Amino acid sequence: MTAHRIGFLIWPGTKALTLALAEEALRVAQRVHPEVAYELAFMHAEPEEQGNGWQLPGESWAGRLEGCQKVFLLADEPPAPMSSALAGALKQLVRAGCVIGGLSAGVYPLAQLGLLDGYRAAVHWRWQDDFAERFPKVIATSHLFDWDRDRMTACGGMSVLDLMLAVLARDHGAELAGAVSEELVVERIREGGERQRIPLQNRLGSSHPKLTQAVLLMEANIEEPLTTDEIAQHVCVSRRQLERIFKQYLNRVPSQYYLELRLNKARQMLMQTSKSIIQIGLSCGFSSGPHFSSAYRNFFGATPREDRNQRRSSSPFELSSVPAERG
Fold first, then answer.
1. 138 Cβ contact list (under 8 Å, min separation 6)
2. Which has fewest Cβ within 10 Å: 91, 248, 254, 278?
3. 0.90 cut: is pTM over it?
């Protein structure tokens, strides 16, 4: 029986959980059905810094990519551009017919090489704005995972396990995937096209239908905010009743929650896009630059420019494409 060789190419900083979810599904499959044969190869994309902590398994990738039928790139934060040697090796692997995938931020190096141009790719919601701006030729989705022809991507977390179960189902049938999910006490096998965001009522900690409706309205109207009266009218309650619901479940009035929602969206855009501060302020419902800057400083303790510059200096990769602003 010829083993199906699967490679895991690991970037520094990858969490053990990301690798463990992928590896365990394949290990359990072999235990449940001994006729299933996988040969797993663990490789490091860059030299690991030697420390006293526990190290992920693997050796240097050099000379070890050949013969893999599938290769998964693993990273938990968007990595810097890879070496030309590794880039060339991965492109050669793809030309040879290898199926290649990105798990969590492993989608970034694939996109940097142009290997996702014209493909669907599942991107974690935290990186959606940044990724879409950097790689406009990639069809970035908010799915749990995508399997588009010979490219596979999973947004991270438990979606890595979801993708591996899909691999097992395609390679060996749904019965084996079901047996592995039962062994791992997985409640259900999720489809790749399911959205990755946590349901709103879970995020709010409440299932109050009027509260859910009101917050959904707010999230859908960031650029042109609704008034509290308009929201109350849309969800068919009085303004007083809506304020009471927000105070009871979220400990703030609707206007305060709405403002925080818009400011958090603005901060995400500041950190992940190259849009100007005034563009971001307007797109998040602020009527002017000074209005945006004042509200932002009151909430975050720094102006938008100060926050962006501080983040740029501490995390150069995240804002490497953001030009310096004048003034």
1. 111, 116, 117, 118, 119, 121, 131
2. 248
3. no
